Amino acid sequence: MKGWVYVLSNSAMPGIVKIGYSSKDPEIRARKLGEPTGVPGPFTIECSILVDNPYGLEQRIHSHLKGIRNIGTEFFKCSPDEAITVIKDICHGKILYLEDNRKKVQIQPQKTVHDFEYWRGMAECGDAKAQSQLGWMYLKGLGVLKNESQAAVWYKKAAEQGNAIAQHNFGWMYANGHGWCTQRRCASCPMVSKSG
Q: How far apart are CA 148 and CA 68, in angstroms?
């Protein structure tokens, strides 16, 4: 199962990083960690890596870094640079997607924007940007047969996570009768919110 391994930092905890994994977008995980009142500040995503076996990779990383691990936690006494270097060394070319926020770099090994399977894998892991991209691919028939219903499904998932592009495109589809139904104000249409 595809998922994310991430490196988080917190300005209130200099010299310490959190290394974990998630089947969902790392931004969701970082926000959840920042919710408790006992946390002194928000977490920053330093790096997120999409791989086929995130739990296994996380366990190998934790084992490799056991000498600097805060026992019983996913926190390590090292810089983000040190943690990311170790992760890249352990991955040995198994990275499907890497986003290094320290350098504002995105690496998509041997992938193109039109690679449907690539984007679908990321979208199924809960990545809002990938869900929006998948909506676009279905809407335009890029790498897959055109399917407005599927476009609406993926745009809605991304929109619910706050992706502005997906919110715009999902709204446009609804306003113009594209997607689940052709009637703009169909009460049974899932595009209509329960409150409205």
A: 50
